[in-house]
Amino acid sequence: MAASCVALLALCLVLPLLLLGGWKRWRRGRAARHVVVVVLGDVGRSPRMQYHALSLAKRGFSVTFLGFCNSKPHDELLQSDRIQIVRLTELQSLAVGPRVLQYGVKVVFQAVHLLWKLMWTEPAAYIFLQNPPGLPSIAVCRLVGCLCGSKLVIDWHNYGYSIMGLVHSPSHPLVLLAKWYEKLFGRLSHLNLCVTNAMREDLAENWHIRAVTMYDKPASFFKETPLDLQHQLFMKLGRTLSPFRACSGPVDPAMERTAFTERDAQSGMVTRLHGRPALLVSSTSWTEDEDFSLLLAALEKFEQLTLDGDNLPSLVCVITGKGPLKEHYSRLLGHKHFQHIQVCTPWLEAEDYPLLLGSADLGVCLHKSSSGLDLPMKVVDMFGCCLPVCAVNFKCLHELVKHEENGLVFEDSEELAAQLQMLFSDFPDPAVKLNQLRKNLRESEQLRWDKSWEQTVLPFLMDM
């Protein structure tokens, strides 16, 4: 009797899915070209998937973008009449019970919720999925693909199990389960994209997954910021962030001044201030794979060099992003008493972030891949803005940062401090090495995202 009840319950659950899937298969042949893009994370903090959606829309596909809506995506995405963003509900961690139980409840909720959203979405020819996180989204998207006739494209940014291994030990049951899951279900996709050749080789050798390398490329809106737009940005940021405000008001009331620029209200001409501070930018998701103690230690050394009489500028350090470790590092920053360095940690609007990168003097990247196989997209965006970068070294960084050609690579805080001293010596003039790196970036032929996507992804979609 119990077995019959279980079978009846299973039939009641599965039959509607089969009927709905059959109906969607019938409709898919009549529908316009449609793609679903899935991120089991914040849409606004998933730039690569936003670029996929924009590229698909520009080539005539209608796009449904499923993800959490915690921060604002780029305006170009919001303004496209071919892209619809569908909000996924994010279940916060339970406050009771063992951690394994909390995680299990969260995964089950996400699986059911994502399945429901996908089954009631317009029939799609393709499902583009970001991994990580892939648990439970890979299995759910593959199931929907089987039911509805959609082809699954997985974009491998990293491995979910390796990120979990930063919190738990590599031998933890959850980590081992996540690794088995990714390896099994990752093979069921129709097309796999990845971000480095090292990851492509690892997927082939250890996971038996064939992938196509598509390097991250900057979107067209990552470029050097004209001086007048820099001034507007500094004025805007100065309303809430004191490091961007002028130390003293202009003598001439017709002048409008920030910490870096001044504008003649009559002529509208913007000039850089003599003796302005250097502007250093680092963007982060405040996770375990970025050790900001390296930057803090380097800034302390830089401060000491300034106090000892080295000809170094004052420094404004902007660390932008959201994430779980932000409060921890904010507390550490609160205990520092710099005299020549100001640090702020804002979350910037999507439109302001490229403008800030295009206005800065130097970028710093502390991303150290959990797998050693992915590359920091933040550096790609900085290079698009012709912004020289100091980046902490790891296994495949050489695929992006060429030491002393388009940036500098460091191993520890002492080496980073030495690089800051060299680059900012006698700033802003001559700053020979800093200017040479920027010149190299300007002269290099930057392949932009649209062209790269057209060469890498589009041919596969046309053949699938």
Automatic annotation (TrEMBL):
CDD domains: GT33_ALG1-like (cd03816). Keywords: Endoplasmic reticulum, Glycosyltransferase, Membrane, Transferase, Transmembrane, Transmembrane helix. Residues 50-211 form the Glycosyltransferase subfamily 4-like N-terminal domain. It is found in: Endoplasmic reticulum membrane. Pathway: Protein modification; protein glycosylation. Its main location: endoplasmic reticulum. It is a single-pass membrane protein. The keyword Glycosyltransferase applies. InterPro entries: ALG1-like, Glyco_trans_4-like_N. It comes from the Eukaryota. PANTHER family: BETA1,4 MANNOSYLTRANSFERASE (PTHR13036), CHITOBIOSYLDIPHOSPHODOLICHOL BETA-MANNOSYLTRANSFERASE (PTHR13036:SF0). This is Chitobiosyldiphosphodolichol beta-mannosyltransferase isoform X1.
